[in-house]
Design a protein that fits this description.
The complex is a heterodimer of chains A (about 475) and B (about 625). Chain A has about 475 residues and is mainly alpha-helical. In chain A, about 75% of the residues lie in helices and about 0% in strands. Classes of the chains: A mainly alpha (about 475), B mainly alpha (about 625).
Chain lengths: ~475, ~625
């Protein structure tokens, strides 16, 4: 047996090792030792994250089923960082009374989903991509239903698994068309000649299946319900890590397998990104629950990600990866604050709970403000640069109209992002609003990482340059 | 010389420290931190200057441009990238010395002057921000970096003018300064864009090297409205410089800017920021000279006119800071005029050298004048000349140092102003006689109004001072900077500037032109003599003369109604014919469409809220029909 293939899967093997250690520890540790589970998980995962920054062997494994390149390593690193921040933010939740004894489950399940996402990103074959996607989706339903004693959480889990099963069906249906047309599921074997109706149908169904993960309109309807019902930290994970992985996987599939029908998917993406951004924004305007609010905000952010993919060139790929990187920090800062407020106020997630937050918790309010400014794309925060580059990428392919509409949409999004700022800084506190509270040190560390990311990454051009060096076009 | 980075970074760190946690310190501690930080900066700048001028700067005959640090910040294309860096050449090193010295003096002085003010920490934080911006501006390696710091300078100046933000006049002065300079910067930005569009670079080195051949070649042939593209771009860039350096007719903000604390006026509105425009023209001098000589001629005439114009107004003002403000406008116009009449290469570049020389000497004696005026204001709690007089016996140090500065600005040898002014006059004499005669008259007027100021403050009849508040000499923190700056004002004139600074980086020799020198001394002495006759003793003669001058005096007193002209221009023309239609467009079309959008949103989301029904089977239905729709789209469109 050729073990070299496994060397290329270094990050996956590392992750499995972390998973196994935690799984075993969770089973055999008892009593006092269990207190060490949380720090151990953070530490091991920090090591796994750091591992990705060492030079790793890259190449193809198992005859092209699995592909690892500088860019996939970087993408996995981004997912790792995001997951790490999510872990840091879960301290209070995992130590609450009804969850405490299931702490280990949370980590093991999350790590499995992450493994699925690794595979999605590294897939060189549609079947591999599908396996990764399923590995990621099924456990995510468990995570969504983690607060099982709460009706909404249970509902979120059920909805997620139903829609996920449904989308898998559609995706597999599409894959069968593709296999029927080309006789292969390897990305490199897919070459369109002329308009092949069956294959194009196959592409559309495949795309719909991934569109579900990326929460593109019209495959987005589950998002609001699941985001609202799932535990806040899981929502954070869903909105950032799961979405980021789907974006990467979609980009690779479109660039590598469907590069020859770029004309077709470009016009589809054109409309979808427009509808996604706009509809996400329109719905966000009306929300009163902050988790639903950010659910729609994240839908519209997914539309912006499509803008980079549309470009179809190396610049677009760079912009997409960069966008996801910055989205990680901005959105996780938001969810960090939401989860802190939720934990401190006995589960309040209405926007009204944030009224006058600045008076009681100025630092948290400032972090939230930075984060929504970054999401809205206000310079000099990182979000401005990511939007800037993504617009540049789309404009480089002549998509001026789309860029213009997207720009109009950023104005709308600013309006509703500023509603949050207004609630925190200008509105008077209502009775029963959140009192002054302090957060645990793990969450603090998570917040600091996010804040630094928002403040610094935009200014450090070397990060963008680094991605430029790894990107490729069609 | 990598340590030069710290000259720029130190003030920025100080700004962050004092700005973010300044209020955690006691005011005096915050002030001392700021001052010590600035002292460190000054030491580094002096080290850099020494090393540059006496050790590493010169290779053979030529002064080298050293770039110890360059960071490519944003790279858009191979041509278009924005860098941040440090460029050391004779003029930037000179500016480092000027800025850090004056800034340090002002920091020290402010410890005494601003004592007990609310917002003491904020004041020092802003001073640091300003120093950072100004230092970043002068060491810019490319025009875009300069523009970034240019705006930062504008912002910090804005917040310092409006430091007393509870005073309405300070608020409106800060707004005026910001808006006027921003208006000018619009021209600057357009100029930068035109220039870089044609030359494909922002880099100063590429723009100015080899007799600016890049600009000349790339912009050749292009014309717009009868003027060449090069003329347009360089004139627009000059517009930015004219705004910051208060050239006619964009000078209106500077007198009002005196609402800021007096040390701020000394630092920003006398010695450093206002010469940024001169520095900009000097930095791009080869481009002006070779690609747009007509703009250079225009600069000479604008400079000469502004010098005369401001000097005439200065004669009539009674607020001592305003006299100094108009005198600053006049002196900066001198430097501009000197650049305008300058040639290129060797002794022909005398005007360029003289301009930088005057910038250097002026910075010290003008800062001294402002700080001295601050000391006087500190003593009598008024800006008006009528409340002063006979202060010499109460404030010996202030009086003597003020006298030195007055002699220096009037151009009396051996004080520094004489040498630099003489070079300017000599350069003008040989190139543009009209400019020369204008500047010559201005020299006389300068001597007159400066000594009018001096006599009315320190001599003249003594006012009736309140027994309990007899004027007194300022504390040592304020007196010490005065003495140090006085020493600078006496000695800097002896620096052989032409050894260091020239248009083509090669040293040349200058000598005092006997004819020009004697003419300038003559006119200065006449000016001082007239001032002595009129103002040394309290008399009615000045009022009678003012009376007899009638309308001219009145016009000058009201600054030739230029503020009114601008107000007419802005309210009648701009507001009525541009702003009103824009407002209509805004409130009807823009707001209308936004309201329409909001209305549509409401309706649309009410209509589609069924989509978010919570029914999973409905979600699945939308899912499948969505994919079918996309499939139809992909196949049939």
């Amino acid at each position: 047996m050729d073990f070299n293939n496994f060397l290329i899967m270094g990050q996956e093997i590392g992750l499995i090792a972390v998973f196994l250690i935690l799984f075993t520890f969770d089973l055999i540790a008892s009593g006092k030792a269990r207190h060490w589970l949380y720090p151990l998980a953070c530490l091991l995962f920090a090591a796994q994250t750091a591992f990705g920054f060492f030079p790793l062997p890259v190449g193809e494994a198992f005859g092209g089923l699995f592909v690892s390149s500088g860019l996939t390593v970087l993408m996995k690193n981004i997912l790792n960082i995001a997951t790490f921040i999510v872990f840091l933010q879960t301290y209070s939740w995992l130590h609450s009374k009804r969850i405490e004894h299931r702490r280990g489950e949370f980590f093991t399940i999350t790590l499995v989903t992450l493994l699925g996402m690794y595979i999605m990103v590294s897939a060189g074959n549609f079947m591999m991509l599908y396996i990764g996607m399923e590995t990621a989706s099924l456990p995510l339903a468990c995570l969504a239903a983690f607060n099982k004693y709460k009706e909404k959480s249970a509902e979120a889990g059920v909805k997620y698994i139903l829609i996920s099963a449904f989308s898998s069906g559609v995706l597999l249906f599409g894959l069968s068309f593709i296999y029927g047309s080309f006789g292969s599921l390897y990305f490199s074997d897919i070459t369109f000649t002329g308009t092949d109706t069956l294959a194009i149908l196959g592409f559309v169904f495949f795309f719909s299946g991934l569109g579900f993960k990326l929460s593109l309109v019209p495959f987005h309807l589950w998002v609001a319900d699941v985001y609202e019902g799932a535990p806040t930290n899981v929502t954070a994970y869903l909105s950032v890590v799961s979405k980021g992985a789907a974006a990467f996987a979609l980009m690779f599939a479109l660039f590598k397998a469907f590069g020859t029908i770029e004309v077709v998917w470009e016009s589809i993406l054109w409309w979808l990104s427009l509808i996604t951004i706009t509809l996400g924004n329109l719905f966000a305007l009306r929300q009163t629950d902050i988790k639903r609010f950010f659910a729609f905000s994240s839908i519209s952010q997914a539309g912006y990600i499509l803008l980079g993919i549309i470009a179809g060139n190396a610049q677009g790929m760079t912009a997409t990866v960069y966008y996801v990187l910055i989205y990680v920090f901005s959105n996780l800062a938001v969810f960090g604050v939401i989860s802190a407020v939720e934990n401190a106020s006995d589960g309040k997630t209405s926007i009204a709970a944030f009224n006058g937050l600045y008076k009681t918790n100025p630092i948290l309010s400032c972090i939230m403000m930075l984060a929504v400014f970054s999401l809205g794309g206000i310079p000099p925060f990182a979000g401005f640069f990511s939007k800037f580059f993504i617009f540049m990428a789309a404009a480089s392919e002549g998509q001026y109209l789309l860029v213009f509409i997207a720009l109009l949409n950023t104005v709308i999004s600013l309006y509703y992002y500023l509603l949050i700022v207004k609630a925190m800084f200008i509105k008077e506190r209502e009775s029963g609003a959140v009192e002054r509270f302090s957060i645990d040190n793990y969450s603090k560390a998570g917040m600091i990482i996010c804040t630094l990311g928002i403040l610094i990454i935009g200014i450090l051009s070397c990060i963008y340059q680094n991605i430029v060096g790894l990107s490729f076009g069609i | 010389m990598e340590y030069s980075l710290f000259i720029i970074v130190t003030p920025f760190l100080l700004f962050l420290l004092l700005g973010l946690v300044g209020t955690k310190f006691k005011p005096s501690v915050a002030g001392i931190i700021g001052t010590l930080g600035m002292a460190l900066c000054a030491i580094l700048a002096y080290t850099a200057a020494f090393q540059y001028f006496f050790q590493t700067g010169k290779t053979g005959e030529e002064w080298q441009t050293i770039i110890p640090f360059n960071w490519e910040w944003l790279r858009f294309t191979d041509n278009l990238h924005i860098d941040l860096g440090i460029l050391l050449d004779p003029i930037s090193v000179m500016m480092l010395v000027v800025i850090t010295t004056v800034s340090l003096m002002v920091h020290l002085y402010s410890l005494g002057y601003m004592k007990g003010e609310t917002g003491f920490q904020r004041y020092f934080a802003l001073l640091s921000l300003f120093s950072f911006s100004m230092l970043g501006l002068v060491v810019a390696t490319n025009i875009f970096q300069m523009y970034i710091f240019w705006e930062l300078v504008g912002v910090s100046s804005y917040s310092l003018i409006g430091f007393y933000y509870t005073k309405p006049s300070a608020v409106s002065a800060s707004k005026k300064a910001f808006i006027v300079t921003r208006f000018a910067d619009l021209g600057f930005l357009i100029g930068i864009l035109i220039l870089s569009y044609y030359t494909k670079t922002f880099d100063f080195g590429l723009l100015t090297s080899d007799h600016a051949s890049l600009a000349t070649a790339s912009m050749a042939g292009g014309t717009f409205m009868g003027l060449s593209v090069a003329t347009w771009s360089m004139a627009l860039i000059f517009m930015g410089g004219a705004g910051k350096s208060a050239m006619f007719p964009l000078h209106i903000w500077l007198p009002d800017a005196m609402e800021g604390p007096t040390p701020v006026s000394a630092l920003i509105h006398a010695a450093t920021m206002v010469v940024a425009g001169v520095y900009l023209v000097a930095r791009l001098f080869p481009v002006y000279f070779f690609a747009a000589p007509d703009v250079l001629t225009m600069i000479a005439y604008i400079g000469a006119f502004t010098a005369l114009f401001a000097a005439v107004i200065a004669i009539t003002q009674t607020d001592i800071k305003r006299v100094l403000a108009f005198s600053t406008i006049s002196q900066i116009a001198y430097m501009m005029a000197a650049l305008g009449v300058s040639g290129y290469g060797g002794h022909d570049g005398l005007g360029y050298m003289a301009s930088m020389f005057h910038l250097f000497t002026h910075a010290f004696f003008k800062a001294l004048l402002f700080l001295g005026a601050g000391s006087v204001i500190h003593a009598v709690h008024s800006n008006e000349m009528d409340d002063m007089g006979g202060l010499h016996k109460y404030m010996k140090i202030t009086s003597w140092t003020f006298l030195i500065a007055c002699l220096s600005i009037s151009g009396i040898p051996p004080f520094s102003g004489f040498f630099s002014k003489d070079e300017i006059l000599a350069a003008a004499f040989h190139n543009q006689p009209v400019v020369f005669w204008t500047l010559w008259i201005v020299a006389g007027l300068t001597a007159f109004y400066m000594f009018r100021l001096y006599f009315r403050i320190f001599r003249n009849g003594e006012r009736h001072y309140d027994e309990h508040h007899k004027p007194h000499e300022s504390p040592l923190t304020m007196a010490l900077p005065l003495m140090i700056l006085a020493a600078f004002s006496v000695f800097t004139g002896f620096i052989p500037f032409s050894d260091f600074i020239s248009t083509d980086s090669v040293s040349f020799h200058t000598h005092i032109d006997g004819l020009v020198a004697s003419m300038s001394i003559l006119v200065a002495v006449i000016g001082i003599g007239v001032a002595f006759l009129l103002y040394f003793k309290d008399s009615k003669k000045p009022a009678e003369i003012a009376q007899s001058m009638g309308i001219i005096y009145k016009a000058a007193l009201h600054k030739f109604y230029l503020d009114e002209v601008w107000i007419w221009f802005s309210t009648t023309l701009v507001f009525r014919y541009i702003c009103n239609p824009v407002r209509w467009f805004d409130s009807n079309v823009v707001d209308g469409s936004m309201n329409g959008l909001a209305w549509t949103t409401q309706k649309a989301s009410a209509a589609i809220k069924g989509l978010q029904s919570g029914q999973v089977r409905f979600y699945a239905w939308v899912f499948i029909f969505g994919s079918l729709l996309i499939a139809a789209f992909a196949l049939f469109l």
